[in-house]
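Before the break, one more example. Copy the sequence into your notebook; we will annotate it together after we see the structure.
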Amino acid sequence: MNKWYLLYTAPRAEKKVNLELAKRNFTTFLPLQKKIVQWSDRKKMVETPLFSSYIFIYTSLSFYYELLNIAGIVKFVTFQGQPAELSDSQISLIKLMVANYEDLEAVTEIFEKGEQVKIIAGPLQNQIGELIEYKSMKKVMVKIENTGFSLVVQLPNNIIRKI
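Here is what the structure looks like once it is written out:
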């Protein structure tokens, strides 16, 4: 049975791995975001992975060893000794956030507990998050279970409510 899993890739190999998996007819999700990169002589807009060294794959564990033999794939991300499974709703939430927010940041840091909030309008309506202060700005952190990641986004005060 196919499920969403998280693969850990070699550094800066996410796009190559994604192409190779597509050639082999695997369904993948590589969330990208546009960033302006400064070189010594110019600035350029580039697409970079939202989660460095990670790619999501929709597959069956029967392909486990075949996938590990693909150049650039280091391992499956595990949770309690088993490959971490993600739900369709978790993938949909990430896709929704990537599509609707430019100022999105994936973090693995542990933040101090803040107030739990519910988003009452916009693309993230009805999602539960935690109000945090991050880099001197009030933002909402939405945790993606079983991944070790949270997505942090700045939202206007009028669309969040305390729970």
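Residues 59 and 93 are 19 Å apart (CA to CA). Helices lie at 14-23, 64-68, 88-100. Try to locate both features in your own notes.
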